[in-house]
Amino acid sequence: MDLATALGLLAGAGVVVGLIMLDGGHFGAYVSEHAAVVVFGGATAATMIRFPFSTIMHGVPMGLRFAFTTRSVKPQDLIEELTRIADVVRKSGPIALENIEISDPFLAQGARYIADGYDREFIRDTMERDRDNFLLHLDEGSKVYRAYGDCAPAWGMVGTILGMVAMFANMSDPSKLGPAMATALLATLYGAVIANLITLPLADKLHVKLEEEDVSRSLIIDGILLIRDQKSSTLVREMLVAYLPHHHREAVMDAAA
């Protein structure tokens, strides 16, 4: 569970609820079916026009899953795991990889290719293709959520305009002025909250996840290829520390020493 995402959503919702309670706690005054239909329906329709249906069906579930989960293995840990695997292969041969436990699925896939004796080019092409397809779907999720976040405030403004038109068209009937004004204001509120608390932050979080996964999976591919060539564990570590920030490289090398 990504604690930052969960806490951020809870804190944002708490701010909105807290302000409503400070205003008297009349939650019914902040509910408008017309405003909800305009904002949710309009933003959904606009997003569906922007993307193929297959992209939405891939992007939305993957976006939700990776926005609320965090990768348990850090690049430093991956380097240590790859170093351990390289040491096993040098001492006992590739077939020994069938008996070791590897927690990361992508790394386990690469180790299985080595144990099965696949050639270098097959391993590189297959793993790079898997990485690129995974990152493509993650990028699709980010774009879908960002598109929804772009549309929601605009459709909130559409709801505001419609509410204002209804209000001015019924100036002679005071009983209709209140509901029309509520629809106008709540549509703007719904659009702003959806965009700035949910969809745009999730889109940015997915972009960060994409960059992290790109680094981790590229590191794994290079490490697997080095192990496939039966390079020493020391060389594997020295080659892979280039993926780490400078302030982490010395710590990894010192720990190895």
UniProtKB/TrEMBL annotation:
Residues 101-213 form the MotA/TolQ/ExbB proton channel domain. Keywords: Cell membrane, Flagellar rotation, Membrane, Transmembrane, Transmembrane helix, Transport. The chain crosses the membrane at residues 34-53, 152-171, 177-200. PROSITE patterns: MOTA (PS01307). The keyword Coiled coil does not apply. It is a multi-pass membrane protein. It is found in: Cell membrane. InterPro entries: Flag_MotA_CS, MotA-like, MotA_ExbB_proton_chnl. Belongs to the MotA family. This is Chemotaxis protein MotA. The lineage of its organism: Bacteria, Pseudomonadati, Pseudomonadota, Alphaproteobacteria, Hyphomicrobiales.
